[in-house]
Structure formats: C-alpha cells, structure tokens
From TrEMBL:
<keyword id="KW-1015">Disulfide bond</keyword>
<dbReference type="Pfam" id="PF03815">
    <property type="entry name" value="LCCL"/>
</dbReference>
<dbReference type="GO" id="GO:0038023">
    <property type="term" value="F:signaling receptor activity"/>
</dbReference>
<dbReference type="InterPro" id="IPR035914">
    <property type="entry name" value="Sperma_CUB_dom_sf"/>
</dbReference>
<keyword id="KW-0472">Membrane</keyword>
<feature type="domain" description="F5/8 type C">
    <location>
        <begin position="221"/>
        <end position="358"/>
    </location>
</feature>
<feature type="domain" description="CUB">
    <location>
        <begin position="4"/>
        <end position="117"/>
    </location>
</feature>
<dbReference type="InterPro" id="IPR000859">
    <property type="entry name" value="CUB_dom"/>
</dbReference>
<dbReference type="InterPro" id="IPR008979">
    <property type="entry name" value="Galactose-bd-like_sf"/>
</dbReference>
<dbReference type="Pfam" id="PF00754">
    <property type="entry name" value="F5_F8_type_C"/>
</dbReference>
<dbReference type="InterPro" id="IPR000421">
    <property type="entry name" value="FA58C"/>
</dbReference>
<dbReference type="InterPro" id="IPR004043">
    <property type="entry name" value="LCCL"/>
</dbReference>
<dbReference type="Pfam" id="PF00431">
    <property type="entry name" value="CUB"/>
</dbReference>
<keyword id="KW-1133">Transmembrane helix</keyword>
<dbReference type="GO" id="GO:0005886">
    <property type="term" value="C:plasma membrane"/>
</dbReference>
<dbReference type="InterPro" id="IPR050633">
    <property type="entry name" value="Neuropilin_MCO_CoagFactor"/>
</dbReference>
<feature type="disulfide bond">
    <location>
        <begin position="4"/>
        <end position="31"/>
    </location>
</feature>
C-alpha cells in the first residue's frame, strides 16, 4: 500500500508527509522519497512532526533517512526515538527518506521539509519564532507549504494572526509561489481586534479574533523581494465580444468592456452568450510591472462571476505570451471567484512586464 501523503519536491526545497497526515497514518504501508539537491550543495532537513506509534527499535512504524554518498543513515525514528534536533544538516546532496508502517492504533505520521545549504537560515512551515515586537526577521519557506495542515487568519492588506501557519500565510499573501518556496522577511507587530478572511492565491483564510501580535509581510523589511501595492490605471479596455442584454421591460443593457473596471457600480463586462475563447484586454498605456490581479463578480444584483481563467501578456498588442508562473511548462490556470461580491487576489510570481494584459 501507498504510505505517501502530500508531496512537493523541487531541486532547492520541498515538503512531504505521510498519508492522511495529521490524521492517523494507514496500516501496512511504505513510502520512499528521493531528495536531490544541485551538485555542490547539501541538504538541510527540518522535522515538522514525527509521531509514529512507539515500539522497540521502531519495528512497527519507522522513519529512516539514508545518505548514499556518505554511506550513513539517520534513525530509525518513531515516537519513543525522536530526532535529537528539529533540523538535520547533512553533508550530502542526495538523501532517501523511508517510511514504513505495520499494524498500529495511533499516530499522526510525519511532516518533513527540506532546503539546500544555499538557504542556511531557519526553515519554516509552522508557527513563527518569537522575536522582539516590530522587528523584521527572515525564514526560508520550502516549496509545498500551501497544502500542509493548519489554518491562517487575516489577509495581505491587514496582516495575519500570529497563530497562523507562517509559510502558508506567505503563499496566501503572494510573497512566494508555492511551487518554488523562497526566503520570506516579515515583521511581528501589535495585534488587532479582528482579522478579516480573504481568498487569495488558491487559499482561504479565516476570520479571526483579537491576538497579541500579528504577522506583516512588510515592504519596509529590506530583505523582502520588491513588491508593489499600487493599483495600476487602465488606459483602455477591449474584449472579444460583449453582451447586449434585453431586460424584462424590453430595455437594452450593454455589458461592454469598459464596465470591467473594479468598483464599477451596477453591471460589469460579459462576453456574448455562447461565445468560445472569450477574453478581456487591459491596455495599461505603457509597459508596466504587474505583480498581481484582483477579480470580482458583476455585483450582488447580477450574480455572475468567473471561476477560473488564464492570463496572457503583450508588449505591442500583437504578440502574446501565456503566463506560466515560476518555471512552469504549462499555462497557469488561476482560481477565480466563487460568488459575485467578494474580491479574489492572485499574485504573479514572477511579475509580468507588459503593456497589454488579457
């Protein structure tokens, strides 16, 4: 049987867990993960959780790490034989992770992340360290944090409750791409009374109550990659088609491209019903650095919205390039809206440099 749970492995970082984590892992399973870093680097492994039912010499359930280059092993580990430290520094660019289970009654299983020696700082997946109030600190978030267990409260504009899963919040805030991970620099500031929920970058955050402190992914923290919160002006809208609606009173209502601007009162843009490959085009007037997009449905009165979409860009309005995200080989599908009135944010990592966006 398959003992592999959530897994995302890249050359520079990754996250893996046993099946059903953090629920009880299944009986009679096995899983083997091969971690490979670029030549000349070594692997750092962070044990987020190792909770395997105890047994003599971990015979019933075990985690074993093998370093084939050095000919050494680490473990076996289980609940009564846990790793000596939460971070294991190897001298190898390749490590094999072995997980086995026989019959057992309890245990969450395992959660493990890794990064290369190019990122010697702390590797974070769960709650953040506790530095002094209002100071910047840095954590390396491995790839694959989006789907680990744990909640986040808050949103990119106001910040996050300090009990939020830090690296998951970083994906929600759009400061890293889940498929690559990366260094995150943030501040811990005074908490606020209420944290509002939001849907951003494929993640839902929760509405949360007062906390003593909050996490801010801060532009003022100089180590943070350049980001921008300014709204870009749109010089002109264009579309593949538009809908001319005739309402119940026989009056015409034109759902033209110009009505696509966020915040427009009343109805928005809509393509002609039944049209294929519909698109909306934004002319920014000049080449701009575009770091993300916010979408919203038509309004509460007109319950229309787009659930998913692709993005293309052009510098001249003639040659178009599909957006593929961080090293992706396929056009990226962005997760859109689930209702007509809430805003949904998606970050472009890396940003798009273009005049026209479709």
């Amino acid at each position: 049987g398959d003992g592999c749970g959530h897994t995302l492995l890249t050359p520079h970082s990754g996250t893996l867990s046993s099946k059903n984590y953090p629920g009880t892992y299944p009986n009679h399973t096995a899983c083997r993960w091969r971690l490979r870093a670029p030549p000349g680097t070594s692997l750092l492994l962070a044990f987020g959780d190792v909770d395997l039912e105890p047994s003599e010499r971990c015979a019933h359930s075990s985690l074993l790490l093998a370093d084939p280059q050095a000919g050494t092993t680490y473990g076996p580990f289980c609940r009564n034989t846990v790793p000596a430290a939460p971070l294991l520094v190897t001298n190898s660019s390749a490590v094999t992770v072995l997980f086995n289970s026989t019959s057992h009654r309890s245990g969450r299983g395992l959660l493990l992340s890794y990064a290369t020696s190019q990122h010697p700082g702390g590797i974070g997946t769960g709650a953040s360290p506790d530095p002094p109030l209002a100071t910047c600190f840095s954590v390396y978030c491995p790839a694959g944090c989006k789907d680990i267990d744990g909640d986040i409260w808050g949103n990119p504009s106001q910040g996050y409750r300090d009990t939020s899963v830090l690296c998951k919040a970083a994906v929600h805030a759009g400061v890293i791409a889940d498929e690559l991970g990366g260094q995150v620099t943030l501040a811990r500031e005074k908490g606020i009374t209420l944290y509002e929920s939001a849907f951003a970058n494929g993640l839902h955050s929760k509405r949360g109550s007062l906390s003593e402190k909050r996490l801010i992914f801060h532009k003022a923290c100089h180590l943070l990659l350049p980001a921008c919160g300014d709204v870009l002006e749109v010089a002109a809208f264009n579309a593949s088609s538009w809908w001319l609606e005739v309402d119940a009173l026989g009056q015409d209502r034109a759902w033209v491209a110009e009505r696509a601007a966020l915040g427009t009162a009343g109805h928005s843009w809509a393509a002609e019903p039944g049209s294929n490959s519909a698109w909306l085009e934004l002319d920014l007037g000049a080449r701009r650095n575009v770091t993300g997009i916010i979408t919203k449905g038509s309004s509460e009165q007109y319950d229309y919205y787009v659930t998913s979409y692709w993005v293309s860009s052009s510098r001249d309005g003639k040659n178009w390039r599909p957006y593929r995200g961080s090293g992706g080989q396929e056009d990226k599908v962005f997760e859109g809206n689930a209702d007509s009135y809430r805003e949904v944010s998606n970050a472009f990592i890396p940003p798009i440099v273009a005049r026209y966006i479709r």
